[in-house]
Amino acid sequence: MREVVTALEARVARLEDQVAIHRLINSWGTAVDTGQAEAAAALFSDDAVLRSDMSHLVGPAAIEEMVHSDGQQALIRQGSAHIPAFPLVDIEGDRARAIGYSRVYLHTDSGYEVWRVSANYWEFSRTADGWRVSSRTNHVIDGGSEAQELLAGWFRQDT
Amino acid sequence: MREVVTALEARVARLEDQVAIHRLINSWGTAVDTGQAEAAAALFSDDAVLRSDMSHLVGPAAIEEMVHSDGQQALIRQGSAHIPAFPLVDIEGDRARAIGYSRVYLHTDSGYEVWRVSANYWEFSRTADGWRVSSRTNHVIDGGSEAQELLAGWFRQDT
Amino acid sequence: MREVVTALEARVARLEDQVAIHRLINSWGTAVDTGQAEAAAALFSDDAVLRSDMSHLVGPAAIEEMVHSDGQQALIRQGSAHIPAFPLVDIEGDRARAIGYSRVYLHTDSGYEVWRVSANYWEFSRTADGWRVSSRTNHVIDGGSEAQELLAGWFRQDT
């Protein structure tokens, strides 16, 4: 009986981990679109690395600075929505990884523009304060090999 | 042992609450896009309030009426898809709240248009018939302060 | 006590089923956008049927062939993102069904185009190897009755 309950506890903990990791992924867009620099930075571990076609940021302070940057503030004034798609998440103990698409919609004088569609690969670690993003790599979808490889690697690791 | 199991039951109930609230949020679009007025109204509690830049509806009957309205019927004939993004959900006992983006895609002669991108704030209550939406506030993303404040408040309440 | 734990096990299993079915739905897009034909086909049961306005495929081999087709390879070279919306899922024992929207974004010389917005109805079965898609029907949203009926049926079955 104790064994059954212990196994059940582990399964419930894993489902809660899923919810926590979804929450990290889904908090990013709202935080950066509303200029909540501290909230955006707090999603990441101290040694977190964010890579994209345009930037390479290391650590929460650099992420806060990005949110305060002229480029990001211009997007906020224009009206932006960074929206991640439902991700694929794999959890193993205190580490997890995920892939998924994201889109940035921008308000313009003639309606909404799909400004960017990207591929993302995230890594997560369980810290003393709960799950944090430890790495995010983002490449725009443009038929090029970088976004392709970022996503295709997921299926190769699976098998 | 009994204590361990009781704690586990509470954790499972909370995960089930998450699923139920996601379902409420995700049922709305399909219901209004297909003219299912009763199904749309049934997502809401009797005293529910829906606020947007264009409307202020109180209670299920007003919501049903909105689905039957000329404006909504025209969207249905044109071909529309109201799609919420993955929301952020907080549950406390018999109350919950969530924020998240939503988009309306419209079919046009020259393809699909992103007609509207909005910020949403929902409140939920657990009723005798299960979770219901008790309030939804919706503001379009256009760089203005209303959508900004609606979403940014989430992070301020968090801290 | 044993009864309480057995009931809890069933509830946890159901939550895990939800996660597994979300994963099937969310794996499809990434697999076809990156040309992972085997991974795409592996989501389906041996007798799975895929119906759309443009195609009727039966079984994993036909799905693999579709991924290798000239049409799909052209989309991959252009840069595509097949993104499902958060689905509504119903599970009953070893069978499940879901409805939900999906979108295809395409990279073009002048930015991103929302190429297709569709309604989907899925059926799933639990096999010896876990949950698999046993049927998917897809109709584009264009104000026509096919997509409407596909989604509206969900609410009629509910009541």
Written overview of the protein:
Three copies of one chain form a homotrimer. With 159 residues, chain A is α+β, with helices and mostly antiparallel strands. Chain A is built from five helices and seven strands; from the N terminus they run H-H-E-E-H-H-E-E-E-E-E-H. Chain A has helices at residues 2-33, 37-41, 59-68, 70-78, 145-158; strands at residues 44-52, 56-58, 80-84, 88-92, 95-108, 111-127, 130-140. In chain A, strands 1, 2, 3, 4, 5, 6 and 7 form a seven-stranded mixed β-sheet that branches. In chain A, strand 6 and strand 7 (130-140) form a beta hairpin. The first copy, chain A, is globular, with a radius of gyration of 17 Å. The first copy, chain A, starts with a helix and ends with a helix. The model of chain A has no long low-confidence stretch (mean pLDDT 96). Chains in contact: A-B, A-C, B-C.
